[in-house]
Amino acid sequence: MKIKVFPREYAGGPFNALVLLLSLLAGLVAVGVVFALKEINPFFAIFSIFKGSFGSWFGIKETITKAIPLILIGAGLALAYRAKFWNIGAESQLLLGAIFATWVGLNWGPSLPGWAAYLLMFLAGFIGGALWGMIPAVLKIHFGINEVISTLMLNYIAAEIVKFLVVGPWKGETKYGYPYTDDLPDQAILWLFPYSRVSPLLVVLTVFVALFLCYLVFRSRFGYEIRVIGENAEAARYAGIDFFKTLLLVMAISGGVAGLAGVGELAAIHHHLSYPETISAGYGFTAIIVAWLGRLNPAYTILSGLFFAGIVVGGDAIQMTMGLPAATVQVFNGLILTFLIMGDFFVHHRVTIQREA
Amino acid sequence: MPILEIIENILVRTVVAGTPLLLGTLGEVVAERSGILNLGVEGMMSVGAVTGFIVTFTTGNPWLGLLVATLIGAAFSVLHAFITISLRANQVVSGLALTMLGLGVSGLWGKPYIGRPLTTKMAEIRIPVLSEIPVLGRVLFSHDPYVYLSIVLGIVVWFLLRYSKLGITLRSVGENPRAAETQGINVNLVKYIAVVVGGAFAGMAGAHLSTAYSKSWIEGMTSGRGWIVIALTIFALWEPSRAFLGAYVFGCIFVLQYVLQPLGISPNILAMMPYLATLGVLFVYGLSSAGKRRMSAPAMLGEPYIRGSR
C-alpha cells in the first residue's frame, strides 16, 4: 500500500468546512490531553469552558464583550493576511487607538455633546491605529524591513509609551497615585445594555466593519489588487499594481480597525487609560487565530471571533475554579492554531491510498 | 569609580547579555540557511528557559539543566519542521503558533516555580592564565560556561558552513533544492535537521537566561529576545561571523538600559531601547544594502519544497 499526495486547487466548500471542523475538534482533543496531563478530567474541563462562556446569560454577555475587539481586529488582520502582509502588531495598533481617543476624550470631551465626542474619539482612534499600522508598510516597501519584526518591535515600543504616559505626563490627578489617567467625561462613555458591558453602538460598528471589509476584499477593485498581491506577487507586478499604495492602505485599514477596538475597550469598559496589559488582554494575538479560523474572510471572523471569545471567557472561568495559571488560555490558542494549519494540508492536497497490484 | 572600570564592567555584562542572543541567532542562521523560517524562537527559548530551570532546581545540577533544555528545545522545534516541511504549511503562521504554544506551555509548567531562586546556578569558570590579562581577562575569560560554549559553537557553525561538505549541502538545500535533490541529497531530511539544530540552540539560549544570567523563572522572561534573534539573523546576513557582532551590540544595549538609569531618563524610554535599536539597525541596513541583503538571503527562504515538482 502506498500513500500518494497531489497538490490541488480547490476542494469544494463543504469539504473545506468539514476539514475546518475536524481540525478544530482535533485541537480540542489536544487541549483535553493537556488537561489530562494536569490530572483534570478533560471532558469536564472542556464542558466547563463552554458552559462558562455560552451556558448562562452572564457568560454570553461577557463572550460578546470580548468578541467585539477580536472581531474588529480579526477582520482587519484578514485583510492584511490576504495580501500576505503579516501584521503581528494589532496589539499596539489597538493601544495607539486608545491613546489617541484618550487625548480627545479628556481634552475635547467635556465641551462636546455625546454624539460628537463619540464620533471624534472613534475617528481619532482609527487615525492612531492607522498611523501606527502604516509605519511597518513604509518600512517594508522602502527599506526592505520584514513586517513581522517591525510590527512586533512596535508592540513593545507602544506598550512602553502607554506605561510612560500613565505613570508620567498623563497620570490622573483624581487617581491617588494609581497608574491611570483621569476618567473620561460622562458624555464620552458609551452607553451599555443594562447589567452588561456590551455597548450596542460597538456591536453595530463591529458587524458593520466585518461586513464592509468582506465587501472590500471580494467585491472591490482594491480587494482584487490585495488578493493578487497575496496570491501571485509576480503577476501583480506585471499588472502594474502599485504595491506601496495598496499595502499602505491595507495597513491603514488593518491598523485603523484595531484602533477602533482600542477606543471600544477604553470608552465602554475601562473609562481611562491604564497599563497596556489591562487595556488589551492579548486581543491582538488571539485575533490572528480568529482571522485564520475565519479563513481570512472578514465576515467569517464574526463567527470565529465569538468562538474564541468563548474560549477566553470560559478559560478565565475555569482558571479561577480549577486554579490554573493564566497561560492556560495561551496553550489552547497555540494548540488550536497548530491544528488549523495542519488541517490546511488536506485543503491544499489530495491524499489517496493506492494498493499495489 | 574610575571611568575605565565602568567601561570594563559594561563590557563584562555585555558579553553575558549577548550570549543568549548569540546562541539563538546561530540556531536561526542554520535553520534559515536550509530555507525554513522559524518564527518560533521566542517560544522555543521560553520552553528551554523553563525546563532548564526546573531540572536545575530539582536536581541541583545546572549541566543537566542545560542538556535537558537543549533536548526539549530540539524536540519542540520538530513540530514546526513537521508542519512546514512535511505538511508544507505557511511558515510564518506555523512559527507564530509555535511561539504561542511555547509561551503558554512554559507558563503552565513554570507556575509552581515562580519566585523560587536556584540554590546552585551555573558557576563561573576562570580560564587559567588568560583570565589574568588586564581588562580582557575579565571581559572574555571569567564567565559562566554558556559564554564559552556559545563562542565555541559560533566558531564551529562558521567553520562547518563555510568549509565543510555539510555546510555546502545545507546551503544548496536552501538555495536550490531541486539541484540538491539531483545530487542525491535528501532535501527534507536536511531541512528537518537544520530546524532541530535551531531548536536546540534556542533551548540552550533559554536555559542560559534562567540558570546563569538570572537564577529564577518568571513568565515572559525571554521578553522579546526570540524576536530580536530573528532580526539579528537578517542583520548577520545569515553569516555566523556577523552574528557575534550583532549579538554583542544588542547585549550592550540591554546592559545600557540599567547603566543609564541613574541619569534620570524615564525607565520606560530605556526599556524601549532594544526594540528601537532593532528597528534602527534594520533601517540603516535598508538604506545602505538592500541589494546586498536580498542577494545573501537563502533563495528559497520561506518557500515549501515539493519533491518532483517543477
Can you offer a commentary on this structure?
The complex is a heterodimer of chains A (357) and B (310). With 357 residues, chain A is mostly helical. Chain A has a domain at 69-301. Chain A is 72% helix and 3% strand. Chain A has helices at residues 13-37, 42-54, 57-82, 90-107, 114-143, 147-167, 200-219, 221-231, 233-238, 243-270, 276-279, 283-293, 301-322, 327-348, and strands spanning 2-7, 349-354. In chain A, strands 1-2 form a two-stranded antiparallel sheet. In chain A, helix 3 (57-82) crosses helix 12 and helix 4 (90-107) packs across helix 10 (243-270). Chain A is globular and about 80 Å long. Chain B is mainly alpha-helical and 310 residues long. Chain B has one domain (3-117, 135-296): ABC transporter involved in vitamin B12 uptake, BtuC (Orthogonal Bundle), CATH 1.10.3470. Helix content of chain B is 73%, strand content 1%. Chain B is built from 12 helices and 2 strands, in the order ααααβαβααααααα. In chain B, strands 1-2 form a two-stranded antiparallel ribbon. In chain B, helix 1 crosses helix 10 and helix 11 packs antiparallel against helix 12 (267-296).
Low-confidence stretches of chain B: none
The largest sheet of chain A has its strands arranged as 1-2
Sheet with most strands of chain A: 2 strands, antiparallel
Question: How many domain regions of chain B?
Answer: 1
The number of helical runs of chain B is 12
Extract low-pLDDT stretches of chain A. none
Number of DSSP E strands of chain B: 2
Assess the beta-strand content of chain A as a share of residues.
Answer: under 5%
Shape of chain B: globular
* N- to C-terminal distance of chain A: 9 Å
What class do helices, strands and sheet pairing of chain B give? mainly alpha
Shape of chain A: globular
One letter per element, helices H and strands E, the order of chain A comes to EHHHHHHHHHHHHHHE
Count of distinct strands of chain A: 2
| Most extensive chain interface and residues per partner | A-B, 48 and 50 residues
What is the CATH class name of chain B? Answer: Mainly Alpha
Described by strand count, sense and barrel closure, the largest sheet of chain B is: 2 strands, antiparallel
Overall mean pLDDT of chain B:
87
